[in-house]
Amino acid sequence: MGGKTVIRGCDWAVTWNAGGGTDGSGGHTYAHGVDVAFEDGVLIHVGPNYTGDADIEVDGSGRMVMPGFVDIHSHPSSEPGNKGLNEELGSPKLGQSGLYEYMPVFRMLPEGAPHATRFAIWEMLKSGVTTFCDLSGNRENWVDEVADTGIRGVLCPMYRSAVWSTKNGHSVVYDWDEAMGERGLESACALIDAADRHPSGRMSGMMGPSQIDTCTPALIQASKAEAERRGITMQIHAAQSIVEFNEMTGRHGMTPIEWLDDIGVLTSGTIIGHGIFLNDHPWVHWPNANDFERLVASGTAVAHCPNVFWRRGIALNHVGRYMSAGIPLGLGTDTFPHNFLHELEIAMVAGRLMAGTFDQATTEQLFWAGTVGGARAIRRDDIGKLEVGCKADLVLVDLTHPYMQPMRDPIRSLLYSAGDRAITDVFVDGTRVVDGGEVRTIDIEATAAKLNEFQKVTISGVRKRDWAGRGIEDLAPMVLPTSD
Ligand SMILES: [Zn+2]
To answer: How far away, in angstroms, is 38 Cα from ligand 1 center?
Structure first.
């Protein structure tokens, strides 16, 4: 921040055409020979021939400049600790999901949250994410910890009226405590106030009643009202598992989407993570509903996080259909790694496999979802695109990197071949946070060491948390047998 920076002579740029796109509401465009200048964290020039002065000059030759990605759904305080534990775990008698039997067993100690969060943000920054939504339990110092990494953070403290568990691996029980949910909502409001007040100007908030099946309708409605009052969004996990679909239809005789509509929150400004199990999903046999049409008509956004689901054989049906119908859709990294480019590639793979055709889940669609799509889902018009007046949140890609060759189409080279290896620099709010591929703000060796320590503690407590008393070798056997 402070002073003027110009990235001069970028060989390629992803610029913004305000009248472009299929509906004329704007679209990304390739351009060559572009100067990008910014001051006080805001873009003041995007185009050829910047003639103003500059305090800092960055050479753009051999580089593509593009907008930073917007990650609208992540759980960085816990997910990094699950690496090597739950990649191939789902409950065969609970709809293949890992949510009910395994997530509580592998939960890391709360003291590990700051380390896990830094680790996840390191991965995000290196893969070009400049804004992310952090869906975590509320904790002290959260705002400062995220702000210190240099990223732009939308903090979404999660709270709920019930806790789920399984005592037999084939049914889920809900332990209700409505007052707990109300206290959670109250403390979430305080946290969001603190985020809004943070001097960095990079922190903000989102309302987060955790899951459709663990919150009372009153808690969800109060959260939505609070989000509207503040002009922010609300995010809730819904239509994310077969168990939840059956639970909601069992309770109410309505699908999760119908029930959200019934209680008045299926509207613009609500984000559903993950919106998979609509009544017309091939795993659901519930013909007498119109979830997809309702979703389209409502303007409700969807947070699409394919990585955590494909590991369990589950996929959205299908991302190209959702986007073509106009459902506002952004991408998230619901699990480790928090490598956004990896997630983006999986979104294309899963989308085409589910559609059974190559012309769905196109590169253009998913690049849109990862940038402007995510920005619009969280009601931000000043990120996800390189336009004068927007935040100086941008990424430099090394076009000369061997993995980018032959270099005909830089976005394709980046997404299908090079991945985060070709990302050299990331600016957030005008500050260079990633420099020459290194994250300036995070000591990754120390962070990884801490994460290893906390994972060891998690593993040591698995047997007492598992309903069947199983140890780690039974729950998550190693890939290969060990010979010594
Ligand atoms: Zn999630």
So the answer is: 34
Phi, psi of 303 (to 5 degrees): -95, 115
Q: What CA–CA distance (Å, rounded) separates 100 from 173?
A: 9
Q: Report pLDDT digits (tens) over 132-163.
A: 999 999 999 999 999 999 999 999 999 999 99
Sketch out the chain's domains with CATH numbers: 4-67+387-439 (2.30.40.10), 69-377 (3.20.20.140)
**Residue 404 token pair:** 């980018």
Three-state DSSP state, 295: helix
Provide the residues around ligand 1 (an ion) whose CB is within 5 A.
334
In whole angstroms, give the CA distance from residue 235 to residue 155.
11
**Residue whose C-alpha is closest to residue 471's, from 458, 459, 455:** 459
3-state secondary structure of 481: coil
Give which of 163, 87, 75 is closest to 475, Cα–Cα: 87
Here the tokens at position 297 are: 């008509």
Cα 334 to ligand 1 centre (Å): 5
Alpha-carbon gap, residue 95 to 91, rounded angstroms: 7
Alpha-carbon distance of 451 to 461, in angstroms, equals: 16
Q: Please tell me the distance between residue 333's alpha carbon and the centre of ligand 1 in angstroms.
A: 8
How close is the Cα of 74 to the center of ligand 1, in Å? 6
Burial annotation 10-29 (CB, 10 A radius, 16+ → b, else e): bbbbbbbeeeeeeeeebbbe
CB-based contact 414:71 (threshold 8 Å): no
- Tokens for 320? 């190209």
Which residues on neighbouring strands pair with residue 162, listed in sequence order?
Answer: 176
Residues 340, 167: Cα–Cα separation, whole Å: 35
Tens digits of residue pLDDT in 417-469:
999 999 999 999 999 999 999 999 999 999 999 999 999 999 999 999 999 99
Q: How far is the CA of 344 from the centre of ligand 1 (A)?
A: 16
Question: Distance, CA 243 to ligand 1 centroid (Å)?
Answer: 16
Angle at 274 between CA 343 and CA 367, to 5 degrees: 35
Distance (Å) from CA 300 to ligand 1 centroid: 17
Identify the sign of the CA torsion 142, 145, 147, 152.
negative
92 burial via Cβ count (<10 Å: 0-12, 13-18, 19+): exposed
Q: What is the DSSP letter of 122?
A: H
Residues 315 and 306: beta-carbon distance below 8 Å: yes
**Is residue 88 exposed (0-12), middle (13-18) or buried (19+ Cβ within 10 Å)?**
exposed
Residue 477: is the preceding peptide bond cis (ω within 30°)?
no
